[in-house]
Amino acid sequence: MQSILQYHLLCRSVQDQYGRTNEKSAGFVSPFPKQILVSANKDEFGRRNTSDNLNSEYEKAPRYFDPELRHDEPIQVSLANGTQTAIGTSLGFPLEGVKVRERTSEEGESGLVFVVGWDTPDNPMNPHNWSMVCRIVTTIMVCLILTVVSATSSIDAAVKPQSSQAYHVVAGNLTTGCYLIGFGTGALVAGSFSETFGRNVVYIISMFIFIIFIMATGLAPNYGAAIVFRFLTGLFGAIPLTCAGGTIADLWSPLEATLALPFLQMVAYAGPMIGPVIRSYVGMGTVSWRWSSWIMAIFAVLVLSLVLLLQPETYGPLLLKWKAHHLRQTTGDPRYRSETEIIKTTLWERLRVNLYRPFLLVCTEPIIVIFSIHLTIIYIVVFSLMNGYTYIFPTYMVHLKV
Length: 402
Hints:
Elements: H1 2-24, H2 34-39, H3 51-60, H4 76-81, E1 98-102, E2 112-116, H5 132-154, H6 160-167, H7 174-197, H8 199-218, H9 223-251, H10 254-279, H11 291-310, H12 316-331, E3 336-337, H13 339-342, H14 347-364, H15 366-392
Parallel strand pairs: 2-3
Antiparallel strand pairs: 1-2
Helix pairs in contact: 1-12, 5-9, 5-10, 5-11, 7-8, 7-9, 7-14, 8-9, 8-11, 9-10
């Protein structure tokens, strides 16, 4: 809902910016012959103009100045831009926030490209410039997502005796282990999806599939199905968990993130503690142990509803991609591109890099190996305690919820 609103607001902002620039250039007499402006990138012999060629043409032309501009600012940049010639309008001014440059050989094409950015440093569409209330609410939305995803990881630990009896198995802890394996697997590909489609779409789709597999776990007819569904639940639950740090970076400056990111991590690690509190009231009385899955599914549906209604898109490059799209539609010039659109890479290429990079870092960075071992030990201790309560305190199971 909020993403759709942002898309239309960006369209209106681009149209207003273009209108203001068009009005500013009304009645302006260009210092260059019209044929130079129309060709924009070709000289009189049909050869491609470089920046030096354009500057030499500028030096030959008589200088006229816009009365609204300072008199020491000639409009040399207007020729280099040539952005409005596609629709027969020479504005004489570059659009604010648009950087004109030549394409490099690595980008696979030749010619000028108009790199779209924010027109002003305090542009209200830039997530870093949102109001404090808006950024705090968005951060709380992400915290709720982390809570439901991490709490689901340990929700089935206390009902393990009932589930093991229902499935006629002894190794009832395997469902928790498979959820964590799914966590690790999903984290490898989550970044590529969020950098391609944006944060909001990834949150919504992954949470929707996450809910489906929570319900599938609650309906699992046998232990094998429960293991598979728990793995898939962890796989799709890892995607929003991994993208949460990116959302914090989208919203907060590096200094502000030193407060926001620790708070986010505290919520993420509090989830496994909240899960046992919830499920300690399930399975001990008349309520079926399968309600441990249904409770988390209900919680996840409520969070997903809030995300659909209140969560805006925070990924800046995607917002600039929308802006570039609106500029192409408004001006009719296909050279407007966001930074991420200049070099076209497929989703598979990004996934391949993200899959390869963690193993490369583990092999080349000792500090990452040490930190990974540290986190592995923490997870082993935490989830061993979750599953060990029923063995450590078998006599006091009736008071488990206390």
